[in-house]
């Protein structure tokens, strides 16, 4: 009985520690957006990040522009984050994030962007 | 009168001897002397000198007040270190770890002797993750220029000089005159294995995005910025 109880406690401890560590490595969509995307797209998503200087060849996309953002599909959004602007015939100023964020983290950014634009992707 | 000249010549000889000794002492500053200055001025309050960096989360990174220096000898050029420490102009347009506040440019300034000693100390901080003599610093590399400007928009975050004008983004360290500051070997090592050197950062990773040749080429290209 005592042996079984010990094993159960150890198993619970293992699961808690394992998943706890895993969770601490993954950031939420909002945190990822503010850490990476906001450098160019701004903390509010309005395209006015600190890197959006007057001499840049393109302006970062305004993620709060409902009409413009609503033209995009979920795939468009995921692809441009994953593979960068070049893969979607957009500017190379948008870097690829597939080696920086996990696939899950990239997918989770879609609803966050949808919230920013107050729109639904096609 | 003759006695006066003897005394004068003797004093002059002593003076010359002392000056030479002083210069030599300065030229032969040991890393230990620089470490003492570094410690006395509490530089370690902002800069990590005992690596590797073990940050895992954004929160870990945000606790840091200044760039890591545990690989400073692999990253920076000695002459530049000594000169910059005496006249520390901002390298990062933005305050360290901030994308909202501008760099106030209030880094501590050292005297010529202190700067020489601290530069020697920092130059002794070498990382095993940075292989030496891989990149030929200062040699123009067209493949690197294309990768830097066309394949990837590196100046989206790093400011550069174009046609005599400083352009580009502000969140990354400036690349204006980066060839005077950075060793190509460090740039290449960082691109190749960023986590070994700076485990948490805002810059996306280019492992698997740029191939090895492009990474070497970009590193070499950046060292031509002077």
Report on the structure:
The complex is a heterodimer of chains A (122) and B (226). By secondary structure, chain A is an all-alpha fold. Chain A has a single domain (28-117), classed as Orthogonal Bundle (Cytochrome Bc1 Complex, Chain D, domain 2), CATH 1.10.760. Chain A contains 5 helices and no strands. The longest helix of chain A is centred in the first third of the chain and has 24 residues, at 2-25. Chain A is globular and about 70 Å long. The termini of chain A are far apart. Chain B has 226 residues and is mainly alpha-helical. Chain B folds into 2 domains: 1-126, Cytochrome Bc1 Complex, Chain D, domain 2, CATH 1.10.760; 130-226, Cytochrome c-like domain (Cytochrome Bc1 Complex, Chain D, domain 2). In chain B, strands 1-2 form a two-stranded antiparallel sheet. In chain B, strand 1 and strand 2 (165-167) form a beta hairpin. Classes of the chains: A mainly alpha (122), B mainly alpha (226). The interface between A and B is medium-sized, with 30 and 26 residues.
């Amino acid at each position: 009985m005592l042996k079984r109880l010990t094993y159960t406690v150890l198993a619970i401890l293992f699961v808690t520690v394992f998943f706890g560590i895993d969770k601490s490595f993954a950031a939420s969509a909002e945190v990822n957006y503010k850490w990476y995307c906001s450098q160019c797209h701004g903390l509010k998503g309005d395209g006015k990040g600190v890197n959006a200087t007057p001499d840049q060849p393109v302006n970062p996309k305004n993620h709060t522009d409902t009409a413009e953002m609503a033209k995009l599909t979920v795939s468009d959004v995921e692809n441009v984050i994953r593979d960068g602007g070049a893969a979607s015939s957009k500017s190379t100023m948008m870097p690829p994030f597939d080696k920086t964020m996990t696939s899950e983290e990239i997918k989770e950014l879609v609803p966050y962007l949808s919230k920013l634009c107050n729109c639904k992707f096609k | 009168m003759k006695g006066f000249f003897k005394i004068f010549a003797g004093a002059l000889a002593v003076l010359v001897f002392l000056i030479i000794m002083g210069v030599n002492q300065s030229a032969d500053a040991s890393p230990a002397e620089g470490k003492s200055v570094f410690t006395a001025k509490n530089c370690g309050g902002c800069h990590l000198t005992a690596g590797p960096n073990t940050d895992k989360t954004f929160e870990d990174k945000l606790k840091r007040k200044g760039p890591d220096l545990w690989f400073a000898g692999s990253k920076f050029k000695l002459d530049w270190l000594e000169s910059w420490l005496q006249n520390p102009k901002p390298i990062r347009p933005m305050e360290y770890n901030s994308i909202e506040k501008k760099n106030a440019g209030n880094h501590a300034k050292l005297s010529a002797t202190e700067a020489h000693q601290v530069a020697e100390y920092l130059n002794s901080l070498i990382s095993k993750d940075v292989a030496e003599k891989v990149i030929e610093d200062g040699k123009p590399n067209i493949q690197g220029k294309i990768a830097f400007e066309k394949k990837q928009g590196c100046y989206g975050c790093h400011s550069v000089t174009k046609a005599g004008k400083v352009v580009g983004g502000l969140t990354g360290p400036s690349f204006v005159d980066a060839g005077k500051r950075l060793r190509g070997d460090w740039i290449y090592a960082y691109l190749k294995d960023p986590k070994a050197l700076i485990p948490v950062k805002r810059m996306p990773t280019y492992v698997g995005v740029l191939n090895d040749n492009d990474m070497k080429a970009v590193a070499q290209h950046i060292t031509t910025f002077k």
